[in-house]
Write a structure and sequence with these properties.
Shape: globular
Helix content: over 70%
Radius of gyration: 17 Å
Number of strands: 0
Structural class: mainly alpha
Order of helices and strands: HHHHHH
Low-confidence stretches: none
Amino acid sequence: MADTIIRNSIFQDITQFGIRIVIGSIFISHSLGKFQPDFAGFLGQMGMPLEMQIPIALAELIPGVLLIIGGLTRISSSLLSIVILGAIFVAKGAASFSGRGGVEFEILILVGCLSIIVLGPGRISICYILKKIPRFLQ
């Protein structure tokens, strides 16, 4: 019985670590493209100010890195949830769920971010190693 509990907790920590790595990597790779000058043109087409290019890119890059290392994961995941909601409703217009211009990928990323908010960072994280960060901030 005790062996099952230990295995479940180890698998849970590995799963939480995997979700954090995947979500963080996706946001980091997408943020790197937003530093390019082409993204400023895309913002102009959507009617957004061109000055928003760097804040949007940093809003994806910094929380993505924090998710991977496991620092301030709940706050980082909350920020990324806001970013992905902006992508769903502003950039894509939430036109359809699937197909061309669909938002199924963004909703999947949103669900991953929300699961990180609920589950926390797990034991494979900087927050767990330091143990000085309050649980609600982890």
